[in-house]
UniProtKB/TrEMBL annotation:
<dbReference type="InterPro" id="IPR000835">
    <property type="entry name" value="HTH_MarR-typ"/>
</dbReference>
<keyword id="KW-0804">Transcription</keyword>
<keyword id="KW-0238">DNA-binding</keyword>
<feature type="domain" description="HTH marR-type">
    <location>
        <begin position="28"/>
        <end position="158"/>
    </location>
</feature>
<dbReference type="GO" id="GO:0003677">
    <property type="term" value="F:DNA binding"/>
</dbReference>
<dbReference type="Pfam" id="PF12802">
    <property type="entry name" value="MarR_2"/>
</dbReference>
<keyword id="KW-0805">Transcription regulation</keyword>
<protein>
    <submittedName>
        <fullName>MarR family protein</fullName>
    </submittedName>
</protein>
<dbReference type="InterPro" id="IPR039422">
    <property type="entry name" value="MarR/SlyA-like"/>
</dbReference>
<dbReference type="InterPro" id="IPR036390">
    <property type="entry name" value="WH_DNA-bd_sf"/>
</dbReference>
<dbReference type="InterPro" id="IPR036388">
    <property type="entry name" value="WH-like_DNA-bd_sf"/>
</dbReference>
<dbReference type="GO" id="GO:0003700">
    <property type="term" value="F:DNA-binding transcription factor activity"/>
</dbReference>
<dbReference type="InterPro" id="IPR023187">
    <property type="entry name" value="Tscrpt_reg_MarR-type_CS"/>
</dbReference>
<dbReference type="GO" id="GO:0006950">
    <property type="term" value="P:response to stress"/>
</dbReference>
Amino acid sequence: MLDAEDNSDTPDDADTPEARAEAVRALEAEFGELITHFRRVITENANRVSPGLLPGAYKIFTTIARCERVTVSTLSERMLMDKGQVSRTVRELEDLGLIERTADPADGRSSLLELTPLGTERLSAARLPQEGMLLHTLEEWSLTDIGNLTRLLHALGSGVTPRTNAAD
């Protein structure tokens, strides 16, 4: 893992293919660490919602929470998951009393999924330990650094070359 204080990106750094490959390997390693951390948080939150709840079910549960009201078809498309697997997980979440189905007024053949009051309460309680963690972690960062990280992550996620500054 890199030292957070490492400022080795000076103009004197040689941008050779080898240096670029090494920089990308270091970035991949940091992403691996970050993903491991996220997986741990998701697993812990799933267990806080309901002991034994699998992380995949928690992801479906939180996606329903974000969408507010969503069909199984839309949910499976959004999560790039098999509709049958999503349906089984939805039944599990229903059995736990975390979500409920209501008739879709736009299409009588389908139903909308939404959190129950219990589901909303459990999700809020599960997220409580992480609430403010990012804010606390970035407390000493400058607004410029936070903005740059946001801009670079957006560019990476979108597959575009990042702009050098916000005025571009």
